[in-house]
Design brief:
- This protein is an alpha/beta fold.
- The chain has one domain: TIM Barrel (Alpha-Beta Barrel).
- 42% of the residues lie in helices and 13% in strands.
- The protein is built from eleven helices and ten strands.
- The protein has an eight-stranded parallel β-sheet. Strands 1-2 form a two-stranded antiparallel sheet.
- α3 crosses α4 and α7 packs across α8.
- It is globular and about 55 Å long.
- Keywords: NADP, Oxidoreductase.
- Belongs to the aldo/keto reductase family.
- This is 2,5-diketo-D-gluconic acid reductase.
- Pfam families: Aldo_ket_red.
């Protein structure tokens, strides 16, 4: 598997498997099928409710822990965030059945962000998380976190797909050596992604599916991607993106699809802020 090197020297696969919205009862099989297909990087979160199922599938597979890259996420914590973050992290480790995770992300830019990050820095220094980062941070919040703390986030996982391309955000992240990671890389099929004429034309030119073209486009842009599927044949298809490249003309065609707006959640919307900020994840 191709990888990128994070700002602390840790290698991270450029293509992993996401388990968002996969019910716990289906997660064991989905992760097992993904492992069989060749995935070695898995992205879960406390808020997804399926950490235990991910951990079971990993243990059942018999694949050595050192061959895997496991990401989970911290939900927004109240003050005192330091102790709350430690408790939430220990709960995730226990559910996963792991001694450490490879990447621990702050899931949302809400509540006591700096207190959470201080606790995550301690977890990182102890080696219980090989790298730490954030998710859903706009660049102003990201730079604020960087300038007032000691450890620079290794990753910022954000919505990124052909209809919301985040080019300006990516430039700021690159300046600070923060790896961009795309959630919803296929836009969950919104805006007619799988039948879009431009994407269909590029896919036909390469003899690839639209999903493969989009994943390849993101990887060529330097993003880490975590597509999700519960179908084994789609899992295998999504991995098969390293034997072709998009041309400059094709990249320009895809650039024209950018709307500059989220298809899911605007984290600067007060209603979204209130809703996500008040949500409590069951332990």
């Amino acid at each position: 598997m191709h990888s990128v090197t994070l700002n602390n020297g840790v290698p991270m696969p450029v293509l992993g498997f996401g388990v968002y919205q996969i019910p716990p009862g289906q997660t064991d099989k989905a992760v097992a099928d993904a492992l069989a297909a060749g995935y070695r990087s898995f992205d879960t979160a406390a808020a997804y409710g399926n950490e235990e199922a991910v951990g079971r599938a990993i243990r059942t597979s018999g694949i050595p822990r050192d061959d895997l890259f496991i990401t989970t996420k911290l939900w927004a914590q109240d003050h005192p965030a330091e102790s709350n973050t430690r408790r939430a992290f220990d709960s995730s480790l226990r559910k996963l059945g792991l001694a450490h995770v490879d990447l621990y992300l702050m899931h949302q830019p809400f509540r006591d962000v700096h207190g959470q990050w201080r606790a995550m820095q301690d977890i990182y220094r102890e080696g219980k998380a090989k790298a730490i980062g954030v998710s859903n941070f706009h660049t102003d919040r990201l730079v604020d976190l960087i300038e007032h703390n000691e450890v620079v986030p290794a990753v910022n996982q954000i919505e990124m797909h052909p209809f919301h391309q985040r080019s300006a955000d990516q430039r700021v992240m690159a300046e600070h050596r923060v790896q961009i990671e795309s959630w919803a890389p296929l836009a969950e099929g919104r805006n007619g992604l799988f039948t879009h004429p431009i994407l269909k034309g590029v896919s036909k030119a390469h003899g690839k599916s639209v999903a493969q073209v989009v994943l390849r486009w993101l990887i060529q842009r330097g993003a880490v991607v975590i597509p999700k599927s519960v179908r084994a044949e789609r899992m295998a298809e999504n991995l098969d993106v390293f034997d072709f490249e998009l041309t400059d003309d094709q990249l320009a065609q895809l650039a024209a699809l950018d709307t500059g707006s989220s298809l899911f959640l605007n984290h600067r919307d007060p209603v979204v802020t209130s809703r996500l900020g008040s949500y409590r994840v069951p332990e």
